[in-house]
């Protein structure tokens, strides 16, 4: 089972700042262990995909991502999900504050 | 040749300025790593573990008395180490967790201490639990027990151990932590016997280490200092390590807890 995630979304002056923490080993090929890393990250705002990202093994263990969305109102639902190379997945949803 | 004295004078003037700049840059770096630190993930995992039924009795730690009453986690960490009547000894967080694991959950000490220090791939139960319990004391002033005779004894023992030189290298804690303005590479060495230096440190332990992706507990910190001094390895949650922790926390008394911290 995938470990916990934590997210914060706040809106000020027409932009919404989202910060999300993910639990993931992000194992690289160099470590001698089986490659295990997050490949896709999807951000949805009120159910509509606004960011589709592909990341690589170069991202650290337990990654943190921070980004700004144009617009966004208090109460908007932001959902962030990830999918790794082993097909494991996890997601978190929060309302914009 | 006549430039040489000038160059030396320049170097003398520049050195303190450089040290100050380095200090400022380190502070900036510390602020950057604190935002978005995985510490929060450890707190969440720890909370889940706290509530998970385990051991032969198949119960969680939710009824564990950390000193503020059975099951009270809020503010408990800031008031440790302290004397516990049921165990008749002074205990720090990890000693108390171990006590609850053996009494409430019915686990053997051997099983519960089999893996007290984890690694980056698999953190230990103690590390997760420490993160959670400590996080519930944010904003609470550090106030380790100082009134019971055994608490006073632990403080005095810890103080004596801090200055006691031993081991193959004839070192004491004070050999590294006894003089101001000393550091190893870029790591400052706080004078832990002085309140002004002990306060910010004790208020941010346990902590997440960015450089090795691990969460470190206070028992680990003391254990590793023993290793660095080339002492024999101390027993986990022994009277000696608890006494040292008591001495350090009492020295830092009054500082609002703001951990678990994030370290280089």
3D structure, described in words:
The complex is a heterodimer of chains A (97) and B (264). With 97 residues, chain A is mainly β. Chain A has a single domain, classed as Immunoglobulin-like, CATH 2.60.40.10. Chain A has strands at 5-12, 15-22, 38-45, 48-54, 64-70, 77-84, 89-95. In chain A, the strands form 2 sheets. Chain A has a 4-stranded antiparallel sheet, with no helix packed on it. A 3-stranded antiparallel sheet of chain A has the order 1-2-5, with no helix packed on it. Chain B is mainly α and 264 residues long. Chain B has 2 domains: 1-36; 37-263, Cytochrome c-like domain (Cytochrome Bc1 Complex, Chain D, domain 2, Orthogonal Bundle), CATH 1.10.760. Chain B is built from 10 helices and 7 strands. Chain B has helices spanning 4-34, 39-50, 93-103, 109-112, 125-135, 149-163, 173-177, 195-202, 218-228, 239-251; strands at residues 82-84, 89-91, 183-184, 187-188, 207-209, 214-216, 261-263. A 3-stranded mixed sheet of chain B has the order 6-5-7. A two-stranded antiparallel sheet of chain B has the order 1-2. In chain B, strands 3-4 form a two-stranded antiparallel sheet. In chain B, α2 packs across α5. Chain B starts with a helix and ends with a strand. The model of chain B is unreliable at 6-14 (pLDDT under 50). The chains are: A mainly beta (97), B mainly alpha (264). Chain A binds chain B through residues 3-6, 19, 21-23, 25, 33, 60-62, 64, 66, and chain B through 35-38, 40-41, 44-45, 48, 120-121, 213.
């Amino acid at each position: 089972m995938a470990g916990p995630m934590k997210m914060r979304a706040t809106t000020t002056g027409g932009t919404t700042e989202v910060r999300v923490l993910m639990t993931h080993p992000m194992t690289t090929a160099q470590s001698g262990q089986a490659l295990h890393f997050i490949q896709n990250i999807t951000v949805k705002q009120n159910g509509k995909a606004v960011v589709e990202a592909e990341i690589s093994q170069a991202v650290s263990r337990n990654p943190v991502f921070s980004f700004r969305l144009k617009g966004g109102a208090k109460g908007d639902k932001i959902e962030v999900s990830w999918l790794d190379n082993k097909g494991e997945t996890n997601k978190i949803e929060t309302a914009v504050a | 040749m006549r430039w040489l004295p000038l160059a030396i004078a320049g170097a003398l003037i520049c050195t303190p300025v450089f040290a100050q700049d380095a200090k400022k840059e380190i502070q900036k770096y510390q602020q950057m790593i604190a935002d978005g630190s995985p510490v929060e993930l450890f707190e969440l995992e720890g909370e889940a573990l706290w509530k998970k039924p385990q051991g032969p009795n198949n119960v969680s730690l939710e009824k564990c008395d950390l000193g503020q009453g059975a099951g009270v986690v809020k503010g408990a960490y800031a008031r440790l180490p302290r004397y516990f009547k049921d165990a008749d000894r002074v205990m720090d967080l990890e000693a108390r967790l171990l006590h609850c694991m053996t009494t409430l959950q019915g686990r053997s000490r051997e099983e519960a201490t089999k893996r007290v220090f984890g690694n980056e791939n698999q953190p230990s139960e103690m590390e997760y639990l420490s993160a959670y319990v400590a996080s519930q004391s944010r904003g609470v002033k550090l106030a380790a027990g100082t009134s019971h005779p055994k608490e006073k004894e632990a403080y005095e023992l810890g103080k004596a151990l801090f200055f006691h030189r031993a081991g193959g290298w004839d070192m004491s804690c004070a050999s590294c932590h006894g003089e101001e303005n000393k550091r190893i590479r870029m790591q400052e060495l706080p004078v832990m016997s002085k309140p002004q230096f002990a306060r910010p440190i004790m208020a941010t332990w346990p902590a997440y280490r960015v450089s090795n992706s691990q969460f470190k507990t206070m028992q680990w910190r003391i254990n590793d200092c023993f290793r660095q001094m080339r002492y024999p390895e101390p027993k986990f949650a022994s009277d000696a390590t608890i006494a040292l922790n008591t001495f350090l926390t009492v020295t830092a008394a009054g500082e609002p807890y703001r951990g678990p911290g994030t370290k280089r």
